């Protein structure tokens, strides 16, 4: 890439002004305000995901003193500018691993491994322990009900079961020490404040139950007649950024082929050797044979991003939940949806966790 020099006023103190100046120097225009909101401004981060909020913090990176801050130690003395204003783990290449210390337990190294560049999908093994998996299932079990869908304009009048046959429950994380601990861990893993998260969606798939391929973001163009939806996503300025997807149980035993049990999360447009720039448009939304498939493994999670680093929606993040193939099996899973702006499910514990995360910013 080209080297760009930039002269800044000595009185500058806010790193967001530096980010804006860099984008102007590169000829990147800010997006106009929507009818109900402003797009997230660009932001600077260390290469370990610490948000840089001051020029002093930026200069500390240049000197090397800010690269190993707190839980984010081990980073290099450089800053990354993300036009969309929120952190995404840099994929580098398939198989690349970012190593995080003390996230799950003291002294334990957690590896964030890139599974796909397009869409961006990373995998983290042993993120939850057996007690946490079971706790989520037992808390949700009495409340499970058939899943619904937010119908696009083109799908109005159709039944949810035409797309989705699973069961679900939105599990509040309030007043539950185990879930509050998971809240905090998700926030520290993603580097996104937990104030930006919905409650946990717990999912149950029985034999041959599924969810056809879909996006987690809400495209304003697809909900043009739904004024409530348009206001909630600020006509495109606010949306789901990342999905943290938990596998709460395994469907196959040790040594068995994972595909024999089904239940995979499939990304039909993911880049492959046959389609290195991403797969073609999908016509059969129930076909799980293309792209990337991730199979259930107890305690494992994946993070996939519905938005690109520049804040635009990623059409390649299309994904589906595939049929459970064993007649006597049940797949349990759960997910956090993290938005690019604060969400409204905030309680005292989430405020404390958000404060703890933001105190690490430099």
Question: Layout of SSEs?
Answer:
Elements: H1 15-25, E1 43-46, E2 51-52, H2 55-63, E3 79-82, E4 97-101, E5 109-116, E6 121-124, H3 130-140, E7 145-146, E8 167-171, H4 177-190, E9 200-205, E10 211-214, H5 227-232, E11 240-247, E12 265-267, E13 292-294, E14 301-305, E15 319-321, E16 331-339, H6 348-358
Antiparallel strand pairs: 1-2, 1-3, 4-5, 5-6, 6-14, 7-8, 8-9, 9-16, 10-15, 11-14, 11-16, 12-13, 12-15
Helix pairs in contact: 4-6
Give an account of the 3D structure.
The protein has 362 residues and is of the alpha+beta class. It has helices at 15-25, 55-63, 130-140, 177-190, 227-232, 348-358; strands spanning 43-46, 51-52, 79-82, 97-101, 109-116, 121-124, 145-146, 167-171, 200-205, 211-214, 240-247, 265-267, 292-294, 301-305, 319-321, 331-339. β4 (97-101) and β5 form a beta hairpin. The mean pLDDT is 93.
């Amino acid at each position: 890439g080209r080297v760009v020099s930039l002269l800044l006023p000595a009185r500058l103190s806010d790193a967001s002004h530096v980010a804006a100046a860099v984008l102007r120097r590169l000829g990147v225009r800010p997006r106009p305000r929507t009818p109900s909101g402003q797009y997230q401004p660009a932001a600077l981060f260390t290469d370990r995901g610490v948000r840089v909020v001051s020029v002093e913090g930026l200069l500390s990176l240049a000197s090397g003193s800010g690269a190993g801050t707190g839980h984010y130690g081990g980073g290099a003395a450089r800053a990354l500018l993300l036009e969309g204003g929120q952190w995404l783990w840099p994929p580098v290449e398939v198989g690349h691993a970012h190593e995080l210390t003390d996230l799950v337990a003291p002294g334990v190294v957690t590896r964030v491994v890139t599974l796909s560049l397009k869409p961006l999908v990373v995998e983290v093994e042993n993120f939850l322990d057996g007690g946490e998996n079971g706790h989520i299932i037992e808390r949700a079990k009495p409340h499970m009900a058939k899943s619904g869908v937010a119908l696009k304009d083109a799908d109005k009048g159709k039944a949810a079961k035409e797309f989705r046959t699973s069961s679900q429950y939105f599990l509040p994380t309030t007043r539950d020490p185990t879930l509050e601990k998971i809240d905090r861990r998700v926030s520290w893993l993603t580097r996104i404040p937990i104030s930006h998260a919905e409650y946990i969606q717990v999912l149950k798939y029985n034999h041959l139950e599924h969810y056809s391929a879909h996006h987690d973001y809400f495209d304003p163009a697809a909900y043009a007649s739904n004024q409530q939806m348009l206001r909630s996503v600020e006509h495109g300025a606010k949306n789901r950024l990342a999905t943290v997807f938990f596998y709460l149980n395994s469907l196959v035993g040790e040594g068995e082929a994972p595909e024999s049990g089904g239940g995979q999360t499939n990304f039909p447009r993911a880049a492959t050797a046959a389609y290195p720039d991403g797969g073609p448009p999908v016509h059969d939304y129930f076909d799980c044979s293309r792209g990337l498939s991730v199979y259930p493994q107890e305690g494992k999670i994946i993070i996939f991003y519905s938005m690109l680093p520049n804040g635009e929606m990623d059409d390649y993040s299309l994904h589906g939940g595939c049929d459970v193939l064993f007649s006597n099996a049940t797949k349990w899973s759960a997910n956090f949806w993290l938005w690019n702006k604060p969400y409204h499910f905030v309680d005292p514990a989430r405020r404390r966790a958000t404060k703890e995360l933001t105190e690490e910013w430099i």
